[in-house]
Design goal:
Helices cover 23% and strands 22% of the residues. The protein has 317 residues and is an alpha/beta fold. It has one domain: 4-Layer Sandwich (Nitrilase/N-carbamoyl-D-aminoacid amidohydrolase). Strands 1, 2, 3, 4, 5, 6 and 13 form a seven-stranded mixed sheet that branches. A six-stranded mixed sheet has the order 7-8-9-10-11-12, with helices on one face. Helix 1 runs parallel beside helix 3 and helix 5 crosses helix 7. The chain is globular. GO terms for molecular function: hydrolase activity, acting on carbon-nitrogen (but not peptide) bonds, in linear amides. This is Carbon-nitrogen hydrolase. Keywords: Hydrolase.
């Protein structure tokens, strides 16, 4: 932690419901939420993945439709958000489809800070559309609050290594924007291969505790209704405790982060106990059974074990 770190900062997750393909409307909603956040003395508002484009699922979009959604980092949408950040003094993280200088498209997330700084993460495991490329680096940066911020988008958070790498790069606050397609009556999900319940209830709190990090999760959907509930927001502390959560669409899910919890968390102590020389297999693909020393098994002293499966609806005879 930096010597200038604040002892507490108030952040919010905003489970925004976006309008598909209507960036003007979606940016206007983001600006309204930033104005509200300023009234609640929030310093950082975390909006969902692809909240500017508004599409939860990009798979079926034609090339021209996808191209129409894409903007550079300094394009009109992110710039409008950056202007609102300056006006209200609230930092904002927003998801958009980025067009890079070489024409490649990315599922990206931009964090605009007061003072004009912008930090952009490109999703590492992009599956949304065959024309969207995957990013090739982690994103971690310092802030005036004394906390170091990392970003992982949607499915990036499903791999243990991604959050661990972000923590090893010094991140103490992770932004985890997500985009879901809601749940239909059959319970199927179409936007993400991993259910939001798993991500919220099991993965993120556990990963926060493992790495001694605060996590701000913000999920949005492209439409809400009886068959598609709104998104969700959740804020977790470095001990894995949920500080705040809600499923109310466009609501500010806010909490004060007590930064003193970071250094004293078990996760930070576990990071110090790592033995990198043992982890070479993590950098290789496939299974390497030859790398493991086989254990000799003796029949002496063996215990015979048998199993029986019993149906509960039939009496045992």
């Amino acid at each position: 932690m930096s010597p200038s770190a604040v002892s507490s900062l108030r952040v919010a997750a905003v489970p925004l419901v976006s309008r598909p393909g209507d960036s003007l409307h979606n940016v206007a909603r983001i600006v309204d939420c930033l104005a509200l956040a300023a009234q609640h003395e929030i310093v950082l508002a975390v909006f969902p993945e692809t909240c500017i484009s508004g599409y939860a699922s990009l798979t079926k979009l034609h090339r021209a439709e996808l191209d129409a959604l894409a903007e550079p980092l300094d394009g009109p949408s992110v710039s409008a958000v950056a202007d609102a950040v300056e006006r209200f003094g609230v930092a904002a993280g927003v998801g958009f489809i980025e067009r890079a200088a070489d024409g490649q498209l990315f599922n990206s997330y931009a964090v605009c800070l007061p003072g004009g700084a912008r930090h952009c993460h490109r999703k590492l495991h992009a599956f949304e559309h065959r024309r969207i490329s995957s990013g090739d680096r982690f994103t971690v940066f310092d802030t005036a609050w004394g906390v170091r911020v990392g970003i992982l988008i949607g499915g990036d958070n499903c791999l243990v290594e991604n959050m661990r790498m972000t923590a090893l790069m010094g991140a103490t606050l992770l932004l985890a924007p997500h985009c879901g397609d809601g749940v239909n009556r059959s319970g199927d999900r179409s936007a993400q291969p991993v259910s939001v319940e798993q991500s919220i209830r099991y993965r993120l709190p556990a990963r926060a505790a493992d790495n001694g990090m605060f996590v701000v999760f913000s999920e949005g959907v492209e439409a809400a209704g009886p068959e598609r509930p709104g998104g969700a927001g959740m804020i977790v502390d470095p001990c894995g405790r949920v500080l705040a959560e809600s499923g109310a669409q466009d609501a500010l899910v806010s909490a004060s982060l007590e930064t003193g919890l970071i250094d004293g968390s078990a996760g930070r102590q576990w990071l110090l106990a790592r033995r990198p020389e043992l982890y070479g297999l993590l950098t290789r693909s496939g299974h390497h059974a030859a790398d493991f020393e086989p254990r000799s098994v003796s029949s002496r002293g063996g215990i015979a074990i048998s199993f029986a499966q019993v149906r509960r609806d039939r009496p045992i005879r």
